């Protein structure tokens, strides 16, 4: 079982950047792919990005491609989501997921 804790959210102006982190406990972090999802008020949770267990492959939603970068450090049991050129429509609670487990989420608010 993996327990996940996200951090790094906050309030940022449009065009700014944030770097989200996902800290995992448990020995199995490196065995699983990792994903980031987000949920805006009144909307369903949606896929943002994912990375393979080795970090060799990554995938992005079209809405964030070219602006967001997902990464992971298996030696440190952590994952990151670097978010650049943020837009107001990126405002949401961001969740990381590994092995079917979810973190509690971190709020990202982008002002116009």
Structure report:
This protein is mostly beta strands and 112 residues long. The protein is built from no helices and eleven strands. Strand 9 and strand 10 form a beta hairpin.
Write the layout of secondary structure elements.
Blueprint: E1 3-7, E2 10-13, E3 18-25, E4 34-39, E5 46-51, E6 58-60, E7 68-73, E8 78-83, E9 92-98, E10 101-102, E11 106-111
Parallel strand pairs: 2-11
Antiparallel strand pairs: 1-3, 3-8, 4-5, 4-9, 5-6, 7-8, 9-10, 9-11
Characterize this entry briefly.
The chain has 112 residues and is an all-beta fold.
Low-confidence stretches: none
Major sheet attributes: 7 strands, mixed
Give Rg in angstroms: 13 Å
SSE ordering: EEEEEEEEEEE
What is the strand tally?
11
Name the shape in a single word. Answer: globular
Helix count? Answer: 0
Indicate the structural class: mainly beta
Strand content: over 45%
The average pLDDT is 96
Distance between the termini: 40 Å
Question: Roughly what percent helix?
Answer: under 10%
